[in-house]
Amino acid sequence: MQTWYVLLAIAAGAVLPLQVGVNSTLRQGIGSPVVAALISFAVGSACLLAYAIASRAAWPSAQMLGKLPAWAWIGGALGAYYVATAILVAPKLGAANLVCLTITAQLLASLLLDHYGLIGFAQHGINTARVAGALLLVAGTVMIVKY
Q1: Could you tell me which residues come within 8 angstroms of residue 126 by beta carbon, excluding any fewer than 6 positions away?
Q2: Where are the chain's structural domains?
Q3: pTM for this one?
Q4: Where does residue 21 rank: exposed (0-12), middle (13-18), buried (19+ CB within 10 A)?
Q5: What number of other Cβ atoms are within 10 A of residue 10's Cβ?
Q6: Where are the transmembrane segments (predicted)?
């Protein structure tokens, strides 16, 4: 079962640069990174709605929604920021530079979230191996962005 999740994660990572390229093309065609991001989210929302209906996903009750912490509602805003920013900077940085920079930032932020067990993540302390891996990723990013 773990292998299935690993494959899903790899596939999700592989489609990110494709998404950026498609969204950048959309931006070029309509002229606005914000409107391109909005269109991207609208299409994505329609796909998720269709999947939720088709899979007969359980809808949350008002009581369930009311129990959520206030910060649980910002995920869509964070996604919108990422998509709009990627659409804006991808034509300037290129796919490899954008992906290297965002993955490095994701890893560094993830190490902190895991270390302190924040926002629902299990606590996994920072250790020498994790720091070494992060430094290798930073070094690789510098090599790709600089050369």
Answers
A1: 111, 114, 115
A2: 1-92, 94-147
A3: 0.80
A4: middle
A5: 10
A6: 34-58, 70-89, 95-113, 125-145
